[in-house]
Amino acid sequence: MYFDGASHRSGAGPGVIFVSPEGDVLPYAFTLTQNCSNNEAEYQALILRLEMAVDAKYLELKVYGDSMLIINQLLDIYEVRKPELVPFNNYARRLIAWLGDVTLEHVPRGENRQADALAKLASTLALPDHETHVPICRSWVIPIFESEDNGEREVNVVSVLEIETEDWRQPFIDYLQHGKLPDDPHRRTDVKRRAPRFIYYKDTLYRRSFEGLFLHNARLRLEELEALDEKRLEAQQHLECYQARMSKSFNKKVRLRSFQKGDLVLAVRRPINTTHKIGGKFISKWDGPYVVQEVYSSGAYKLVAEDGLRVGPINGKFLKRYYH
Fold first, then answer.
1. pLDDT greater than 60 at residue 164
2. Long-range contacts made by residues 257-260, C-beta under 8 angstroms, separation at least 24?
3. Looking at the structure, do residues 120 and 197 belong to the same domain, yes or no?
4. d(CA 162, CA 112)
5. Residue pLDDT, tens place only, 119-134
6. Do the bridges between strand 204-207 and strand 310-315 make them parallel or antiparallel, or are there none, so unpaired?
7. Do both 105 and 197 map to the same domain?
8. 253 belongs to a structural domain
9. Is the pTM of this model over 0.85?
10. Range of the domain at 176
11. For the CA atoms of 72, 78, 82, 86, what is the dihedral angle to 10 degrees?
12. Does residue 106 form part of some domain?
């Protein structure tokens, strides 16, 4: 992520360039409604991108900026001496702590040209007082930071941070565990209406599904079913490989028999005929000879005996060549 900010008399604006691991480039330009210094615009550019990263739940973020002052202040190399920059520095540190894996690096201005151009463009888009700007897409709002004036003005930063870090699950946990409802009548009605969708079990808030299952347990069950399918496919692959090896080993000993029209062959005596023969085990198991009359592509043959009796079709595996 590359960030930059610009400020002049007509307005201020931050510019942000986000580059994904796949190489996708996402440019953002914002217009600030209040005049501020270049350093404040730089800080707000960084804060805007960090808030977007928090919303997107990024696991890793590398931040590049051409402001050595801001980068070194966040890395504790420089001390924040200007009071108006202290709230921005504290808020940026809090966002970085929420993200966890964030790398800050200073780059020369020449390597940050795109973000610098976006910042300058956004600062020039500041509208005069008599015009109105109507947003038609999502907007990011940075908390308004006010600096202390010789200790005479107090900034209620703690209350702002508490509102931002409020857990949406806590009202439901309080209601399900203790029967406690919020003071706001609208929120009280909303909690009572949505509470039957949840259940509090072993210090964890679960959401019910339409089948009555906990979505947490249903997710575990789906993972088990996916693992079972993987094991079944793995077993099927092993079976197919085993069958292929067995077939290859058997086919080494198989000799293909093919006959042409007019060849003399012997046919295996069928069991239905051997039951009516007398002679015991010394009776020949082959009948014939027969003459091959027709050859089929499926490996079957139609035979004709010497007396004109037609036999078949018979599979070639039940035939063998007859020699005079």
1. no
2. 257/316, 257/317, 257/319, 257/320, 257/321, 258/316, 259/292, 259/295, 259/301, 259/316, 259/319, 259/321, 260/292, 260/295
3. no
4. 35
5. 454 444 444 444 444 4
6. unpaired
7. no
8. no
9. no
10. 170-207
11. 60
12. yes
